[in-house]
Amino acid sequence: MPEEINLIQPVPVVRDEYGMFAHPDMPDFDEGDGDKCKAWVAAQRLQVKMVSLEYHSDEAVSERYFEAGDPDCSDWEPDRPEGDGWFCLAIHYTDDGPVCWWARREVTP
């Protein structure tokens, strides 16, 4: 009998002092765990979209972050993708600055 998968659900986004967030039910993937992350997303039946602060719709927010050199991005409210059901999986740093991972359950026609 296959193991039952507990599907991740939306939770309130509580950001740390730098504006970062990690969904408490999402595994802690390390750099180089791309295949493990993709397998988890598939098992969760999620569609994931990444939004970057660098290309945020409010240029003043991204300019302030990148020009000031301050690691705090608390004032960034990541643009939610169009459509219903999106929830935040994570807001974290990358080599190109902060990104937000939005997720929603895959819609089957």
Topology, please?
Blueprint lengths: L20 E2 L11 H10 L2 E7 L6 H10 L18 E8 L2 E9 L4
Antiparallel strand pairs: 1-3, 2-4, 3-4
Kindly describe this structure:
- It is a single chain.
- The protein has 109 residues and is an alpha+beta fold.
- It has one domain (13-27, 48-109).
- It has helices spanning 34-43, 59-68; strands at 21-22, 46-52, 87-94, 97-105.
- The chain starts with 20 loop residues before the first strand and ends with a strand.
The major β-sheet equals:
4 strands, antiparallel
H/E element sequence: EHEHEE
Overall 3D form: globular
- Average predicted confidence as pLDDT: 88
Determine the strand fraction and express it as a percent band: 15-25%
State the helicity in percent bands: 10-25%
Number of helices in the DSSP assignment? 2
Distance between the termini: 27 Å
What number of structural domains do the residues give? 1
- Going by helix content, strand content and strand pairing, the class is alpha+beta
What is the C-alpha radius of gyration, as a whole number of Å? 15 Å
* Weakly predicted, low-confidence segments: none
Task: Give me the side-by-side strand order of the main sheet.
Answer: 1-3-4-2
List how many beta strands DSSP finds: 4
List key phrases describing it:
four-stranded antiparallel sheet; alpha+beta; 109 residues
Summary, kept brief:
The protein is α+β, with helices and mostly antiparallel strands and about 110 residues long. It is built from two helices and four strands.
